[in-house]
Amino acid sequence: MKNLFTKLLFLIWGITSAQCVTNGTLNATSLGNNGITSVQGWQGSHGTPSTAGVVNSNTWVWMWSHSGGGEGIFTNYNFVQGQSYQISFDIKTSTNISNPNKTVLNSLVYVKALNNLSQNAGINTLLNNGQIVLQSTIATYRSSNWITVTVNFIANQNYTQLSFFPYMAANSSTNGSAQVQMEIDNIQIIPPVTSVFHFEDANNNMKTDFCEGESILLDGAASFGESQYYLDVWRRPIGTTGAFQWQTQIAGNGWTQGQLGVLNLTSIFNGQGYAFASGYEYQIKVATASPPCVGWVPTTHEFRVLNSNASSLFTFNSFCAPDGTISVTVTANDTSSGVNHWWGLIESSVAGSITDANSSGLVGTIQSGTTTTFTGLSKDKNYYIKHGVYNSCVSWRETRTALPQTAAWTGYTTNFSINASNVGNNVNVTAIAAPNSVFVSHHWSISYAPNGNTSGNSPVVGSNPTVSNNGGTATFNTNLVINTWYYIKHGTWNDCAPWGETRKAFRIVIQGKSANGAVYAIETKDVKEVFLGETFNKLDDTTLLEQLSPNPVAKGNSCTFTTDSKNVSEVIIMDLLGKSSTLNFSIKDANSISFPLENSITKGIYIIKVIKKDNSISTKKLIVE
Question: Where is the secretion signal located (predicted)?
Fold first, then answer.
């Protein structure tokens, strides 16, 4: 079906050779002097034009002129001011003498558009009125063979007639008794046909974006000269660049008689069982024609049907980028075509707040599209995402969501290894951090660890703490001796996560003797890794069967957690700095528990950790307003 439009045009153009002026072949029912009276649709403007040729086969008109007189013909035809016409005809000119002079040969051939001509109007009426379509010399078309002439003509006013005549003003007797002669045949006039249209709504507002269910009107009143038109529909999803796909056509085969005018496309195609759906860009193809004079003149225009019920809800994913800052990818729930999306990352002065009153302003630039990523966030600031949707059919709608202040990454660790050696009694220790997949800053320090206890805080004199932003190693070699317990504290942090640390106790001992002297060994114990309340990188917010509500919740109210209530042993609430406390809870039913939040709790983002009797743990984020 998609090739039908092209095929139909080809077919109709193939028949456009027919004339559009009455009896343009000058078919005569009799021949000879004043034979114009037997040519249907044509009259003599002056003189008695003759017909020649073979009746019922091929005839034409013959005219002469000399000494300011002669013969001419005319027919009725309506020319519209400002419109362009193509007029063609076959012509031969000659003289009655073999060697005419320049005066004779410079006599004129006239084609004119006029008004109010009558039979036998006279040569002066033709010369002094109307608009010249063609004026040329007899010499131009002097030939024994037919010459086809095509003229493009724009009417300077409305005219009702077209005339042909030769004119020799010179006296025949002083120019060798000469006269000029003109033969005319196969006259065609191709009138203008224009295909002009636009789209508008029921209130006559011109537009190309329509709402779902809105009436779509095609206004083709500016089209000109057509007696029939063809119309079909194509579409593609809004925002795509692929080819339009054929959908349907008007009436049974796309053809309709009459002028284009104003069409209610919605009503017409609903009546044919086809509806314009939202999310698509439609292409309407129209061709107008005036057969058999003019073949089809095609024009295409597009409009869109937009979603009238867009949603501003969205999801987000926070993650730690390679540079150690937080990145957030946001994705709209509503991805239908034709909806504009506005995304803003906004800093807030209050954790968990999404109000303008606490807003510190937009961070970076406004983003668009159904998904986008914000980068360079820090745990030391509070943010929320504002997402707005709109189009000409949807007033602004927005959703705001506060972001967590931390972001996990795979393989987070503060662990490290120790390489130690002893030269004489001087202990030399190098600590090497286990790798993280993102950038972290490192803190190293060394303290005494009596009996291997790492809970003390007695730094080794002369061994200053080391901070490194790009390295994961540290060396200690001041005031360290064998058989003494020390511990190294290794802390890491970045813009994604707060301080986390690992402590390792060690001492250098003499393992034995060799020929080269004492053999030393390193003894370690008490590895302790601490980070964000032991839940960082372990939060599970995807369990569909376990839900926390209401969320957000006002302080002083209670929350419900849906789970196997008889299996719950403890409920812990923890802030993003790792401070935690146990909450009292009660069993509501077999599938849920309830716990209160004190009025003294600070607004912000918390982690609720539900510990089960089977040692499994469920965690949920909770926003307290």
Answer: 1-18
Per DSSP bridges, beta strands 473-476 and 466-468 are: unpaired
d(CA 343, CA 361): 13
For the chain, residues with pLDDT lower than 70 are 1-19, 423-425, 468-471, 511-519, 526-545, 576-578, 615
- pLDDT of the residue at 516: 63
Of 84, 247, 207, residue with least CA distance to 154: 84
- The Cβ of residue 249 has, within 10 Å, a number of other Cβ atoms equal to 21
Rounded Cα gap, residues 308 and 387, in angstroms: 17
Give the whole-angstrom CA distance, residue 16 versus residue 274: 34
CA dihedral 23, 25, 29, 30 (to 10 degrees): 130
Helix, strand or coil, per DSSP, at residue 550: coil
What single-letter DSSP state applies at residue 611?
Answer: E
Q: Check if the beta carbon of residue 259 is closer than 8 Å to that of residue 223.
A: yes
**8 Å CB contact between 104 and 96:** no
255, 261, 262, 265: CA torsion to nearest 10: 10
Q: Are strands 580-583 and 517-531 parallel, antiparallel or unpaired?
A: unpaired
Alpha-carbon separation of residue 85 from 159, 217, 582 (angstroms): 12, 31, 93
Whole-structure pTM value:
0.55
- φ/ψ of residue 565, rounded to 5: -60, -35
Which amino acid makes up residue 604?
Answer: G
3-state secondary structure 428-466: EEEEEECCCCCCCEEEEEEEECHHHCCCCCCECCCCCCE
